[in-house]
Write a structure and sequence with these properties.
single chain
Amino acid sequence: DEGEAVMRGRIGSLLEVGAGFHPDLDGIENIYLNGAILGMSKAEITRKLDRIIKFADIGSFLETPVKRYSSGMYVR
């Protein structure tokens, strides 16, 4: 088969749920860590932070270390 794919943005692999999360860092710190792993600049992450937080939907737990998250929160 043959075809064509048009991509705008970044492509990354999904190795494992939670891959790249540091258990001792809180949600915000992990957002910056994962953004850096994906090649985003700190300024770009900061610009998108509100949308990322809204998408994650973990509310007040953003300042809690990830190791304290439930399994459902972890996959968000």
